């Protein structure tokens, strides 16, 4: 099997692309839910239960050596996303501390303040580009402040992050700039520790030992990336959802208590990660011969999961094709599952919910300008709109 041509076509407007993807994955669930993709020699699973199984059973489906560089070579040291227990458990505990419920709750007033500030800058203009003026800056400013880094550096942090996650030609330069910047920040935090996340990481211990300099730099990379890429794209996809379903935005205005379930439905309906053949990221590698559905997977073969397919699986979600902000339960797979569940999920949810609740306080009659063609983010990993020109009336 080869993926249909549209899957890699970044020129398709994001809403049209998403509609085609939903239709295609529906066909795959019905006709070929476990299939071998000849383009990158990887098995792909489409059923919800199989997606959960592959992500949950780390003993059978390993994450080791699943991230590759631009030449298709696995990294030597590996990041936390390509670790199995027990190594993963020790490293994950540090990130869990950094993103603890208390830390996230303590950030709530500051996140509200930043959202207010960004909206106040545009409210008198009657128009804005949602991505440029809110979705891009908000998550990077938040995670920078959590790490104790200056917020005015956010445009550079965003530029470097995008280059690294999208494996562009600037990725090497971005990694070098990040490493130099974080090295200086770590040295400064050693001398003058505070209550920020970076200071906590410096003081933290794993198996009785402090993280070395390289480990701290790698964690800064992980936290900065985990703290912004998902949120930025979900904030953009949120506008796409409500543009397609304005009745649900009106419903939310009448029932603001639905904000939390609305966030989960946005995450389910348009996930922030691309679903297609990828030669830089492999979901898992089979550690033994195993059956998935009716297909034999051999030891050493790669398996990818289609999260968007899982999110629309009719066996899991009633009226799966409907966008319903009151949907519950909503066990979507947009943040993953198992030990690699997205560590930044609580922070992303808080930022999206805060934005969603704040939006009607400033704007009414919000409209997406379709006269300007919408474009997808130029990424092989991330899915979302690159631009979102909005017009509105101020409250």
UniProtKB/TrEMBL annotation:
It comes from Dictyobacter arantiisoli. The keyword Heme applies. Belongs to the cytochrome P450 family. It comes from the Bacteria. Keywords: Heme, Iron, Metal-binding, Monooxygenase, Oxidoreductase. The gene is yjiB_6. Transmembrane segments: none annotated. One of its GO terms (molecular function) is oxidoreductase activity, acting on paired donors, with incorporation or reduction of molecular oxygen. This is Putative cytochrome P450 YjiB. Pfam families: p450.
């Amino acid at each position: 099997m080869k993926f249909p041509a549209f899957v890699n076509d970044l020129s398709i407007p994001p809403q049209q692309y998403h509609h085609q993807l939903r239709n295609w994955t529906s066909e795959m669930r019905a006709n070929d839910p476990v299939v071998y993709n000849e383009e990158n020699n990887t098995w792909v699973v489409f059923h919800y239960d199989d997606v959960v199984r592959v992500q949950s059973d780390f003993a059978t489906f390993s994450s080791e050596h699943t991230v590759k560089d631009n030449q298709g070579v696995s990294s030597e040291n590996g990041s936390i996303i390509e670790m199995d227990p027990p190594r993963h458990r020790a490293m994950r505990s540090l990130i869990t501390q950094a993103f603890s419920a208390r830390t996230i709750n303590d950030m709530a007033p500051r996140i509200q303040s930043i959202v207010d500030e960004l909206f106040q800058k545009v409210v008198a203009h009657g128009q804005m580009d949602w991505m440029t003026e809110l979705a891009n800056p908000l998550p990077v400013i938040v995670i920078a402040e959590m790490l104790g880094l200056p917020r005015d550096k956010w445009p550079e942090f965003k530029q470097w992050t995008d280059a690294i996650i999208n494996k562009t030609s600037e990725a090497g330069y971005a990694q070098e700039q990040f490493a130099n910047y974080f090295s200086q920040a770590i040295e400064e935090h050693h001398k003058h520790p505070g209550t920020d996340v970076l200071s906590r990481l410096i003081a933290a211990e794993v198996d009785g030992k402090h993280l070395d300099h390289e480990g701290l730099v790698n964690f800064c990379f992980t936290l900065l990336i985990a703290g912004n890429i998902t949120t930025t794209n979900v904030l953009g996809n949120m506008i796409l959802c409500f543009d397609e379903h304005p009745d649900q935005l009106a419903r939310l205005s009448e029932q603001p208590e639905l904000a939390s379930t609305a966030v989960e439905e946005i995450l389910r309906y348009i996930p922030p990660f691309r679903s297609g053949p990828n030669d830089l990221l492999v979901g898992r590698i089979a550690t033994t011969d195993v059956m998935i559905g009716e297909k034999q997977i051999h030891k050493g073969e790669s398996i990818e999961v289609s999260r968007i397919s899982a999110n629309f699986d009719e066996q899991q979600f009633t009226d799966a094709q409907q966008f319903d902000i009151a949907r519950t339960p909503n066990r979507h797979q947009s943040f993953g599952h198992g030990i690699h569940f997205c560590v930044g999920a609580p922070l992303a949810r808080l930022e999206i919910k805060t934005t969603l609740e704040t939006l009607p306080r400033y704007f009414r009659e919000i409209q997406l300008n379709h006269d300007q063609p919408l474009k997808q983010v130029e990424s092989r990993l991330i899915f979302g709109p690159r631009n979102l020109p909005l017009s509105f009336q101020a409250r």
